[in-house]
Amino acid sequence: EQGYDIDISKFISKQDLKKILEHLKTKGVPAKLATLYKKFNGKFDYHKLKLAIAHYKINNEPGVVRYD
Asked: What is the DSSP code (8-state) at residue 42?
C-alpha cells in the first residue's frame, strides 16, 4: 500500500492470492481483518490477508466497499 515494489509471490502463493482476491472482489475489504480471517476459517495467516488486501487496493479503484 505504501508504494514499495515487492514480489508478493515470495510470501503468498498465486492460488491463495486468487482465492482471497475473488472474495474481496465480491464482498469488498472488511472493516476488521478478523472478519476476513474468520471467513476463511483461519486458513490464511493475517500477514497473507494483509498482502492480498494491499494488492487488491493497488490494483482496483479507490473507494472500496467495506463490510463487517
From this structure: T
* pLDDT tens for each residue of 2-57: 667 788 899 999 999 999 999 999 998 999 999 999 999 999 999 999 999 998 98
pTM for the whole structure = 0.79
User: Which residues are bridge partners to 66 per DSSP?
Assistant: 29
Q: Say which residues have a Cβ less than 8 Å from residue 26's Cβ, sequence separation at least 6.
A: none
Here the cell at position 58 is 493497488
With a CB cutoff of 8 Å and minimum separation 6, the contacts of 56 are 20, 21, 24, 25, 29, 64
